[in-house]
Write a structure and sequence with these properties.
By secondary structure, the chain is an alpha/beta fold. It has two domains: about 5-95 and about 210-265, 3-Layer(aba) Sandwich (Rossmann fold); about 95-205, Rossmann fold, CATH 3.40.50.1860. It is about 45% helix and about 15% strand. It is built from twelve helices and ten strands. It has helices at about 15-25, 45-65, 75-80, 80-85, 95-105, 120-125, 125-135, 145-150, 160-175, 190-200, 210-220, 240-250, and strands at about 5-10, 30-35, 70, 90-95, 110-115, 140-145, 180, 205, 230-235, 260. It has a six-stranded parallel beta sheet, sandwiched between helices. A four-stranded parallel beta sheet has the order 6-5-7-8, sandwiched between helices. Helix 12 (about 240-250) links the parallel strand 9 and strand 10. Helix 5 (about 95-105) packs across helix 7. The structure holds D-glutamic acid (DGL). D-glutamic acid (DGL) binds near residues 14, 41, 73 and 117.
Length: about 270
């Protein structure tokens, strides 16, 4: 048993989708969330910058005495996970392998779309994993960089989001994919728009449930599940006020102001 919290980080709000998955599957696990709201987006940055930011995020969470780290960011998971795992002793779990596995299981026609940030799509991480799991799967990938600012600015259900998504998703529609990996943790907030465009039959696989299941498995196998009531703390690198409103709306639970704190991430 290990009652220390799980550390979770993302460039901003997106990782809350994974946090929500963890809260519902593992209600006894305490969580420390870090959203790098001052430096979002990560997905348009160079590999070296993404590694540097990922290292700082991990260092901060380690300073909070977490027992494990969940990289709730498709970009860092795709570009920097191996590096982070190599340079730290603590278990670090990304979102790519478990999510790709869920998509490989879900597809019927073996045509899978992958959408994510530029960094994620350029890395080919989800595509490589899908091919490794099943060499017959065809993938169609599309970077959707404008989705992140739409979500961060709360435009995810707006007509502008619909018009942009229509353009991004056109090649996936043309190729007849029956399953789409939402390879960026911000994208579940756009599920309504994506479904409206692709049709209700297209399966949308996001990172939350597969990643939470993987975390549960790792904790159980290492005998590190918690048996205490969960405590949640949130840290951001930009103003805490805006984060609180959105996070409460999104997680559907109250987050007292005292539980959201600003941190100077450059110090880590
Ligand atoms: N939520 C992120 C991801 O999954 C990052 C978006 C960004 O910072 O560009 O890739």
């Amino acid at each position: 048993m290990d009652n220390r919290p799980i550390g979770v980080f993302d460039s901003g709000f997106g990782g809350l989708t994974v946090t929500k998955g963890l809260m519902s599957l593992l209600p006894k696990e305490s969580i420390i969330y870090f959203g790098d709201t001052a430096r979002v987006p990560y997905g348009t940055r160079s590999k070296n910058t993404i590694i540097k930011y990922g290292q700082q995020d991990v260092n901060f969470l380690i300073s909070q005495n977490v027992k494990m780290i969940v990289v709730a960011c498709g970009t860092v998971s795709s570009v920097a996970l191996a590096h982070l795992q190599k340079t730290h002793d603590i278990p670090i779990i990304g979102v790519v392998s478990s999510t790709a596995k869920a998509a490989a299981t879900a597809t019927r026609n073996k045509k899978v779309g992958v959408i994510g940030t530029k960094g994620t799509i350029n890395s080919g991480s989800f595509e490589d994993e899908l091919l490794r799991l099943d060499g017959k799967i065809e993938t169609v990938s599309r970077a959707c960089p404008l989705f992140v600012p739409l979500v961060e600015n709360r435009f995810a259900t707006n007509q502008a989001a619909y018009l942009i998504a229509e353009q991004y998703l056109e090649p996936l529609k043309q190729r007849g994919v029956d399953t789409i990996i939402l390879g960026c943790t911000h994208f579940p907030l756009l599920k309504g728009v994506i479904s409206a465009i692709m049709g209700a039959d297209t399966k949308l696989i996001d990172c939350a449930a597969p990643t939470a299941a993987k975390v549960a498995d790792v904790l159980a196998k290492s005998n590190a599940l918690s048996d205490q009531d969960a405590v949640y703390k949130f840290y951001v690198s930009d103003s805490a006020d805006e984060f609180t409103d959105f996070a409460e709306l999104f997680l559907n639970r109250e987050i007292p102001n005292a539980d959201v704190m600003q941190v100077d991430i450059e110090r880590y």
